[in-house]
Design a protein that fits this description.
By secondary structure, the chain is α/β, with parallel strands linked by helices. It has two domains: about 170 residues, Rossmann fold; about 210 residues, CoaB-like (Rossmann fold). The protein is about 35% helix and about 25% strand. The protein contains 15 helices and 19 strands. The strands form five sheets. An eight-stranded mixed beta sheet has the order 12-11-8-13-16-17-18-19, sandwiched between helices. A five-stranded parallel beta sheet has the order 2-1-3-4-5, with helices on both faces. Strands 6-7 form a two-stranded antiparallel ribbon. Helix 1 links the parallel strand 1 and strand 2. The longest helix is centred in the C-terminal third of the chain and has 15 residues. It is elongated. It starts with 16 loop residues before the first strand and ends with a helix. It binds cytidine-5'-triphosphate. The site of cytidine-5'-triphosphate has 14 residues, from helix 13 and strand 16.
Length: about 400
């Protein structure tokens, strides 16, 4: 187990020993995503699967993704007292999916399988992500079991509402893997943003040309959304303004959707004054077509060449920095295609001086990097252009590091 800081129950080391309990429901295939996100975030992941779980997802898959042996059997590894050793070594236990049956067993404190023993033998925080049909979730037995687990300090993430396994839909869907991981890791973190309000912009603006076309960019909104999720998990009141987000926003995060830069500017102007921190992660179009055609632009009228007249958009970040309220912290992002690390830093220093923000998070983007990917590499600069943080990892782990600086 990692060392702990006196007065704080969370481990010091960034690399956590995480036990992922996988139980037997159809959503078990999504446990693979949970395990992968934890491994990519640098954690040592040990899977304890129930026999039923292995009917839904294969042991080789779980072993390949977790990079560790998968444990199932209570009577294996007896010489090393495995039924308690796994739980004793854990910094965090995440059960995803947690079936109604497993939830009932945990509430009763049963230890008839390896997962039950592991959890009983552990003092680590336990996080469960239930998945079942709506009727089972609402059954008084499950409701009572969940109440018992919560009263013992177990963190329950979800379930979400949506399409279930059959043709039915309702509450009972397993929450998406990234959200489970962010929520689970947040349990070990102090709620150091409680009482703070944070405005995050994410995605990429689109500038209309005509009713069917726009000029846009390849930002998916993943990094901004990861910041919003992580900030909410750390206790902040989060406002997310999403420009053409290409990914689903998890329940619990309220999003205001915009499309063009001018719409983003209006939404930011309304939300920014009450925010303690503003993070401009959105990729904003610098120019927009001077005129927007009312009808579709036609080849017949344009001929072989089409010239677009563009006008400069307002710089929202520079405007925010110039009008910031007392004590407000403004964070900009800079997506650059510069490959040389020193030149990238020089660009970042010049950009933060131009924009006037408190911090600038610089990352390299290209055809295969940065945009629409699961991972990111960033350097965070302060006003003076000094590096205050460098991180590589999943967008959610990078989000955590950015918030560490801000908190
Ligand atoms: N930004 C903004 N308004 C704009 C352009 C950019 O608020 N019109 C913000 C972005 O949200 C980001 C930061 O400014 O936080 C840097 O964006 P970037 O596109 O890298 O910078 P630009 O000023 O557009 O400079 P460049 O010429 O490198 O594109």
């Amino acid at each position: 187990m990692s060392d702990t800081v006196p007065g704080h129950s969370g481990p010091v080391s960034d690399r956590l020993n995480v036990v992922v309990g996988v139980t037997g429901g159809i959503a078990a295939y999504k446990a693979v995503g949970v395990i992968r996100a934890l491994v990519l975030a640098g954690h040592d992941v040990h899977v304890v699967a129930t026999d039923a779980a292995l009917r839904f997802v294969g042991r080789p898959t779980l072993e390949a993704i977790s990079r560790n042996t998968v444990h199932t059997d209570l009577y294996e590894g007896v010489a090393e007292v495995r039924h308690v050793a796994i739980g004793q070594a854990a910094d965090l236990i995440v059960v995803a999916p947690a079936t109604a049956n497993t939830i009932a067993k945990l509430a009763a404190g049963l230890a008839d399988d390896l997962l039950g023993n592991t959890i009983l033998a552990s003092t680590a925080p336990v996080v469960i992500a239930p998945a079942m049909h709506t009727e089972m979730w609402r059954n008084p037995a499950t409701v009572a079991n969940i109440a018992i687990l919560k009263s013992r300090g177990v963190t329950v993430i979800g379930p979400a509402s949506g399409q279930l396994t059959g043709t039915d839909s309702g509450q009972g869907r397993l929450v998406e893997p990234d959200e489970i991981v962010a929520g689970a890791l947040a349990v070990l973190r102090p709620r150091d943003l409680a009482g703070r309000s944070i405005l995050v912009t994410a995605g990429g603006t689109r500038e209309p040309l005509d009713p069917v076309r726009f000029i846009g960019n390849r930002s998916s909104g993943r990094q901004g959304l990861a910041i919003a999720i992580a900030a909410a998990a750390r206790g902040a009141a989060v406002t997310l303004i999403g420009a053409n987000l290409e990914i689903a926003v998890p329940h619990g995060i309220t999003v205001l959707h915009v499309s063009s830069t001018l719409e983003l500017q209006d939404a930011v102007a309304l939300a920014a004054p009450s925010a303690d921190i503003v993070v401009m992660a959105a990729a904003v179009a610098d120019y927009r077509p001077e005129t927007v055609a009312d009808t579709k632009i036609k080849k017949e009228t344009q001929g072989d060449r089409l010239t677009l007249q563009l006008v400069k958009n307002p710089d929202i970040l520079a405007g925010l920095s110039a009008t910031r309220t007392a004590g407000q912290v403004i964070v900009g992002f800079a997506a650059e295609t510069e490959a040389d690390p020193q030149k990238l830093l020089d660009l970042g220093s010049a950009k933060i001086a131009r924009k006037g923000s408190d911090y600038l998070v610089v990352n390299t983007v290209g055809w295969t990097e940065g945009f629409a990917t699961e991972t990111n590499t960033v350097v965070m600069l302060d006003k003076a252009g000094v590096i205050v943080m460098e991180a590589t990892g999943t967008k959610s782990s990078v989000a955590g590091r950015i918030l560490d600086v801000l908190a």
